[in-house]
Amino acid sequence: xxxxPPLRLGPVRRFTRNLLCPIDLLGHPLLLKYTRDPAEAxxxxxxxxxxxxxxxxxxxxxxLRVPGGHLLAYERLVGGTDQGLLLDLLNVNAPSSDLxxxxxxxxxxxxxxxxxxxxxxxxxHVVRKLYWDRAAPGGRLDTYYAGxxxxxxxxxxDVPASRLxxxxxxxxxxxxxxxxxxxLRWLRTHFATAEPVWAAVTQGDPTDVNLAHPLAWFDYDTAxxxxxxxxxxxxxxxxxxxxxxxxxxxxxxxxxxxxxxFDHVPANTPExxxxxxxxxxxxxxxxxxxxxxxxxxxxVAAYWTQLVRPIADRLWPGEDLANLLRPYLAMRILGVYNLxxxxxxxxxxxxxxxxxx
Length: 357
Known about the structure:
By secondary structure, the protein is α+β, with helices and mostly antiparallel strands. 35% of the residues lie in helices and 23% in strands.
C-alpha cells in the first residue's frame, strides 16, 4: 500500500498582491489564498457569501487571521496545466463546441441573475473598487496621472499627452480630437455624481482567469451589487485587449499554469503600420490593424448578442449603449495600467515592453 502524506503542497503562485497555493489535506483538494490587506480579505469573504446565493462558487471552508494578513481555504476545483479556466477555451486556434456551450451557459446564468436583481442604486451602495474609487481623489487616476505628463509614444509620437488637444488625430483615416486634461476631469466628475446607476448582483471582475471551466466564479472582493455597464465593460475590454495581449505581456508570471496563452499573444496583438507626427500641420497619424483571435471574437460576440443587448433592451430601451459604456470602458483603459509605463517598441508591429516590478 502506497503511503499518502496527510498534507501535500503545490506551487505557490502570486496574483497581484495575493498568493495562491493548492494543497491536499487528508485527501481533500483545497486552494489556499493569502491576502495581505485585511479590508480586501473582509470584502472577499462578504463577496463570496453574496455571490454564492446566485452563482456557482467553490465552497469557502475556513478563513483565518494570520501574521501579516488573512488565509482563506477554498474548495479546489478540477484543473491543471492549461485546464480549468475560460482562458483555456480561448487559447486555441478556432472556437470549439465547448466554447460555444460555455458562453451559452455563462450568458444565460448572468442574464437570469442580472434581470432578477437589477435595480437603480445609489452609487454609495455599489461596489466601488474598480470605478468610483479609482476616479476619486487619491485614486488611481490621481496616482497615475495627476501632476505628471508623458509622451504619447516615446520614440514614435513625441507629443506630450497634455498637448494632444492641439493636434488632430488621424486613426486609420478617421479624424479625432482628444483633450487629455478634459478627459480626466470628465471621468472624475462622472464618478463623483450621486445619480443612481443600474446595478445587479455580479462578480464584478469577470475575466477569463476568474471564470472556471466547468462554469464557476472565482475572486470575490468585488462581488455584490455592481454597476451593470461596468460589468459589461470589464468583460468586453478584458476579452478584447487585456486578457490576450496586455496582461500576458506585462504580468506573464500570472500564467505559469496556463502557458498556452503565450502562443496566442501574436494573434491578439494589434499591428501598427504607421505612427508619426507632422508638427507643421499638427497632425498625428496612426494606421493599425486590430487583431483578435477567432475564439476571443466568438466569446465577445456571444457575450454581446446574448447578454449585453438583451439586458440593454430591457433596462435602457432606445438609449445609446455606447454612451452608457463609455466612462466605464475609459476607466478600464486608463485605470488598470499606467499609460506612461507602457513603452512602445519601434517596428512594424506593436509589442509592449517588460512589466514593471
